[in-house]
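Hi! If you just cloned this repository, the fastest way to understand the data is to look at a raw example. We've pasted two of them here, unedited. The first protein comes first, obviously.
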Amino acid sequence: MKHDPLAGRLASLDMFRGLAIAGMVLVNTPGSWDHVYAPLRHAEWHGFTPADLVFPAFLFIVGAAVPFMLANYHASGAGRGQLYGRILRRVLLLVALGLILNAATPFLHWALQGRTPDWGALRIMGVLQRIGLAYLLAMILILALGWRGLVAAALAILLGYWAVLEWVPVPVFGPGDHRPDTSLVTYLDRLILTRSHMYRGRFDPEGLLSTLPAVATVLIGYFAGAWVKRASVGSGVTLALAAAGLAGVAAGWVWGLVLPINKALWTSAYVVYAAGWSLLLLAACYEIVEVRRLRRVGWPFQVLGVNAIALFFASGIVARLLLALRVGDGRSLYQWLYDSLFVPWAGPLNGSLAFALVTVALWWVALYALYRRGWFLRL
């Protein structure tokens, strides 16, 4: 019998993952950063926009997939050593891919334009690095603790991080400072990573300390995935996920009255608020795909979802290549494509959105080719 590479996966979770990665590409590749609709911009500092949901939703999905991954390992008869090896390999590959993305821009500028790369200013952290580290820490907890221990760990992370941000003083500025340049998060990143290895040398939105609450995001996803896996398929599951989601949104909003909802700091209020929205989206995907069996609705996003990391990495490399290549008048090829193919008929703002939508569509075609051949990136 031919092995099904998608066996043991939850189709609605793949749909949700596809929605998240499509949103990530859409947000990351506008035609021009000067012309972006407000919902596709991250909040300038405190606050929340739809763009601020994309990354925590992806981390939530990472956690939600863990119960299915563990079940497959147990069913295959693989030993604990093989499981630990798989986890470690996945983490190392994620971190390595993230570092390659960070190095791609200076390397391409050197290769294509002859600029000398400044490796001393290479950024260390990033999206893939955060996914890898948060996944590693969450898996350590998941494999070591029972349900009560995991709930206690998630609460301890969220409450502890809140306490640290509020009460641990930063030299000169004191405690409770949530500004970009003077927060405890920035202080520790500058101390450990050093300014030259941070995002644009100022503040790192995927820094070290703020990775800890991201572990709680993964754990909340794990709780949801484990419950869905045990429950019988039905709209009762949808309603329970939706109720939990509404509770999370309300609790996060209330918490945000005393601790700002802030993606860059990944505040505890942000974790709970974003998790609430993730639960609501998972509920919608679950109802569509698992309960109503409308697989054709979820399938286009499933195509993206089963190769999400490959899409994130490849789209990042191609975007960097288009920015590094130059046309005759000195503009990047990326800008030339936007100026020449989209602005004339759609204008700057709608043209910028159209550029991003076409980018997502082209990547869908590329990933569909992989999907048809049964090629899935396994980390």
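Ok, and the second one:
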Amino acid sequence: MSDRSLPYVIHSDEECERLERQARLANIEGHLRHLPIAGGHRVLDVGCGSGSMSRLIARSFPQVEVVGVDVREQYLEFARARAREEGIHNLTFQPGDVFALPFPDASFDLVWSKYLLQWLREPKSALAEFKRVTKPGGYVVSCDYVGCAIEHFPIDPELDRQIRDVMAALVDVNIGRKVASFMLSLGFSDVQVEMETDTLFTVIGRIDAERRWNLETQFQAMRPHLIKMFGSETNVNRLVERFLAHYDDPTTCSFTTLHFTRGRV
């Protein structure tokens, strides 16, 4: 992992399976409307993880060549296996660093990323690299959180402070509102932002079992990092129990927004 990236604290040996289940909760089919894809295009999915979005794009646009890139070979092996199982032939996966993508200039008509920039210490540099590998007239589209898991009402003030401190230490919880400005400063044109409700962390009333499992699984993976932050497993257990209890409460509401930011090269 590059020192230009934050630790991916939710990694585990089961992360790809979690990402597949998360993709269903996130309704990724709806993301396709944000992708300006036409016949004969080449599409790059940066930080593809388990390959769920790469496979969806390839299935939905069989005339398009799709390439998925991730830094973890374990994820790429999973993605390749799923693509083979589904009989998808217009899709390949390969390793790559988001700050030094293994492609010549102007290689793709569309570059897509989701939930990636929040893990980077230098997201603007990554966007510059996305721009480099995009053809003139092509697009970069990035889907990012705003208010990731930190906006709740009603919530105990102490828990609210702890959750905000934890999330801010792990990821950039508001990266989505910064991407358009980064793109403008990098010389992108026709920069646009569309906002949607995130369906993973936005919960009105009591959380359902599948979304609760998603939260629990991520907390379990990040436990070693949380213990360093809070000093003991007891303190971490208390925090997680209180956070999940908030989501279990039928009178509470939690909100997170997705920003789909698009810029033309």
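That's it. A detail worth noticing about the second one: Residues 15-264 form a domain with the Rossmann fold fold (CATH 3.40.50.150).
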